[in-house]
Amino acid sequence: MNSLPDDVARIDGDTPTMRLLALLEVIAARSEVFSLQTLVEETGVPKPTLHRMLQQLESAGMLQREGDGRHYSTGVRLRRLAEQLLLNDTRHGARHAVLRQLVAEVGESCNITALSGSEVLYLDRVETPAPLRFYLHPGSRVPVHCSASGKLFLAQMSPAQCRRLLANVPLEAYTPHTLTDFEKLEAELEQVKAQGYALDQEEFLPGLRCIAVLVGTSGRSNMGVAIQAPSMRMDNAKALHYLPALQRAAAALAAIESPQPGEARESA
């Protein structure tokens, strides 16, 4: 049997269900909307077969059709599945211990986040014991354009990808400091990309500052870790003073997320 070229994604499986799951793996690795023809070229699956598979996934809510009728993106059901996996991951206890240690070190509230659609989802959070604090529980969502973690996720995207993500999300002004002009936001994202961390300078909530870094340094990451504090306790200089502790926590979280011995899939 002829082997597929190295750059062709394999849609393997002993049953139709397993092949649908393999196709979802290919789709989940994509960072932008896609068309039927794009997937045909990427997978080598015959067009009629792939069209039928996409129809099945769309009817199940795993995919959704874009406004032009030709392109697809992840559906609500698939995004919710991904969120629940992150929120209820068996490594939650280990991640939570890292957060507790970070809070003990810096004395401020800390959280772990992920990008969910056009919002930032709080996967976990540990509050500071200080009496003055902002309460945000796991499962909370904040806007992507005016949060430190959100800027980190946006900075990984190309300008075109970023514009597509924000096309249907108005850059709402939550405070006088919110960036509502895409060109200014784009310039800040370039700075975030260069410096490796992001700041929220009272852009989402008045009186709240935040500093965040990504978890993992190789390739794209969909996990961030952040420190939040009232601006009266944490100015920008204090936030940068906490940066080494934040980076150590990110490295510890990256080690937790890395495949452990016996977890990596054996090569065929």
What's the total helix number? 10
* Low-confidence runs of at least 5 consecutive residues: 1-8, 263-268
Structural class: alpha+beta
User: Nearest-angstrom radius of gyration?
Assistant: 20 Å
Strand fraction: 15-25%
Termini separation (Å)?
A: 16 Å
What pattern of helices and strands is seen along the backbone?
HEHHEEHHEEEHHHEEEHH
Helix content, binned percent: 40-55%
Task: Please state the average pLDDT score.
Answer: 84
Count of DSSP strands: 9
> What general form does the structure show?
globular
Report on the biggest sheet: 6 strands, antiparallel
The largest sheet has its strands arranged as: 6-5-4-9-8-7
Looking at this protein, list some descriptive labels.
six-stranded antiparallel sheet, three-stranded antiparallel sheet, disordered N terminus, 42% helix, alpha+beta, 268 residues
Structure description:
Helix 5 packs antiparallel against helix 10 and helix 6 crosses helix 8. The protein is 42% helix and 17% strand. It has helices spanning 16-28, 36-43, 47-59, 76-87, 92-106, 148-155, 159-166, 182-195, 236-241, 243-257; strands spanning 34-35, 63-65, 71-74, 109-116, 119-126, 141-143, 198-201, 208-214, 224-230. The chain has a 6-stranded antiparallel sheet. The protein has a 3-stranded antiparallel sheet with strand order 1-3-2. The chain has 268 residues and is an alpha+beta fold.
Q: Could you give the topology of this structure?
A:
Elements: H1 16-28, E1 34-35, H2 36-43, H3 47-59, E2 63-65, E3 71-74, H4 76-87, H5 92-106, E4 109-116, E5 119-126, E6 141-143, H6 148-155, H7 159-166, H8 182-195, E7 198-201, E8 208-214, E9 224-230, H9 236-241, H10 243-257
Antiparallel strand pairs: 1-3, 2-3, 4-5, 4-9, 5-6, 7-8, 8-9
